[in-house]
């Protein structure tokens, strides 16, 4: 293992020591196909991730599997705070493997991140390269929290439908969910 990669797996490595080591490592360096930013995300080191971003680490630089750091955070179930930190450095229409951030949040059931993305004007109607919408991915993966969030977001954008009321909306969602399970 190269010295800079060791700092991520060693829980007691201080932020100051990590900075000292990473200061001399190019941001696009890779170990096992991952950049320092990928490693910081994998090990949940928000302090190091924030510092790397300040030093211009590119959250769109893919690893050897084609995963960008911003997309990598979804499959590693990172904290909401770390996700926000990374995603504030990415355009909401950025793509990794044909999916935008809202697609990834829907696929992995990250309601917290999906809500934040919608609050920051992510396009809930965008299609990925396989023509799936975020709602379609949430339905396909049975991520009920994201399904509810996207459905209610859609209703709110159509004032006349929103006047039907929350109870009607929830009844429609429940019927749709029941149909998914049969």
- Helix-strand pattern, N to C? HHHHHHHHHHHH
Mean pLDDT: 85
Strands, total number: 0
Number of domains: 2
Rg, alpha carbons = 19 Å
Assign the CATH topology of the largest domain. Serine Threonine Protein Phosphatase 5, Tetratricopeptide repeat
SS-based structural class?
mainly alpha
Task: Write up what this structure looks like.
This protein has 182 residues and is mainly alpha-helical. It folds into 2 domains: 1-90, Alpha Horseshoe (Serine Threonine Protein Phosphatase 5, Tetratricopeptide repeat), CATH 1.25.40; 96-182, Serine Threonine Protein Phosphatase 5, Tetratricopeptide repeat (Alpha Horseshoe). Helices cover 56% and strands 0% of the residues. The longest helix has 15 residues, at 166-180. The radius of gyration is 19 Å and the shape is elongated. The chain starts with a helix and ends with a helix.
């Amino acid at each position: 293992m190269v010295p800079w990669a060791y700092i991520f797996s060693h829980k007691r490595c201080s932020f100051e020591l990590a900075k000292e080591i990473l200061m001399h490592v190019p941001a696009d360096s890779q170990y096992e196909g991952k950049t320092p930013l990928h490693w910081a995300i994998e090990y949940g080191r928000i302090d190091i991730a924030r510092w790397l971003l300040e030093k211009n680490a590119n959250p769109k630089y893919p690893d050897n599997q084609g995963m960008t750091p911003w997309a990598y955070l979804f499959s590693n179930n990172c904290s909401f705070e770390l996700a926000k930190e990374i995603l504030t450095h990415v355009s909401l229409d950025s793509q990794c493997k044909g999916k935008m951030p809202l697609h990834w949040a829907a696929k992995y059931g990250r309601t917290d991140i999906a809500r934040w993305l919608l609050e920051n004007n992510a396009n809930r109607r965008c299609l990925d390269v396989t023509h799936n919408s975020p709602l379609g991915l949430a339905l396909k993966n049975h991520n009920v929290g994201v399904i509810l969030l996207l459905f209610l977001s859609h209703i709110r954008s159509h004032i006349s439908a929103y006047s039907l009321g929350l109870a009607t909306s929830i009844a429609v969602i429940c019927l749709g969910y029941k149909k998914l399970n049969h």
